[in-house]
Amino acid sequence: MAEYTIPKSQRPSLDKLRTIPEPILQRLISAWTRSANSVSSVEGISDAEASELTIALLELFRVREYFDEKIPEFASGVATALQRDLKFPTDQIPAFEDRIARLLAVTPIAISAKTTSLGMEYERRFCTARILTDARPVFVESPSSRPEAMIITHTLRLTFHDDTDEMREVYLTLNSKDLITLRELVDRAEEKTKSLTSLFAASNVPVVELNEA
């Protein structure tokens, strides 16, 4: 079993997971079971606290996957590490281990964490885009005369994260035909998504967005 070191910034959230009253935790688990990405209006806990605990639980999933540990061993390692840091009574470790193991069995959270993990494995991940449009004059003779024609161009600015999680930009020049090509490609991709979603729905396999986390 790996020996874990819990960052100071994450210790308060994990301690909240350890100490939150069981009835509130049960309501949180019910909310997570419905949706891992939008937990709100849970009785007994603020939306901000619910969001904080969701992030903490997602991080537990990601760390366990990174170390490729079985749930019992991972739960024991995390509980032991937190006790070592916060000095709570050692007889409370088993209950915390059981709670971690139970939380790691929440399927929607596991799917969300796995989806995010898979998304991070791509070399470049789309962030935002913008199209800038310019009109440039064409002068055949003197630039002081009336332009003979105008060229309308579009610059596609793509912003993405690379494999070091740094944000990068690339600029591509487009003409009107390129815009039509892009639109057709997007429409085709959306049709593929609808077709595949229907196919998987028939087999009761949910489809999740890559960045749902």
Primary descriptors:
213 residues, alpha+beta, 52% helix
What order do the helices and strands come in, and which of them pair?
Elements: H1 11-19, H2 22-34, H3 47-67, H4 71-86, H5 93-103, H6 107-120, E1 125-138, E2 149-161, E3 167-174, H7 176-201
Antiparallel strand pairs: 1-2, 2-3
Helix pairs in contact: 1-3, 3-6, 4-5
Describe the structure.
- There is one protein chain.
- With about 210 residues, the protein is α+β, with helices and mostly antiparallel strands.
- The chain has 3 domains: about 10-120, no CATH class; about 120-175, no CATH class; about 175-213.
- It is about 50% helix and about 15% strand.
- The protein has helices at about 10-20, 20-35, 45-65, 70-85, 95-105, 105-120, 175-200, and strands at about 125-140, 150-160, 165-175.
- It has a 3-stranded antiparallel beta sheet.
- The longest helix has 26 residues, at about 175-200.
- The model has no long low-confidence stretch (mean pLDDT about 90).
Largest sheet: 3 strands, antiparallel
* Secondary-structure-derived class: alpha+beta
Cα Rg? 25 Å
Distance between the termini: 27 Å
Approximately how much helix is present in the residues? 40-55%
Strand order of the largest sheet: 1-2-3
Number of helices: 7
Strand content: 15-25%
Q: What is the count of distinct domains?
A: 3
- Provide the low-confidence segments as ranges: none
Number of strands: 3
Order of helices and strands: HHHHHHEEEH
What global shape is seen?
A: elongated
Q: If you average the pLDDT, what whole number results?
A: 88
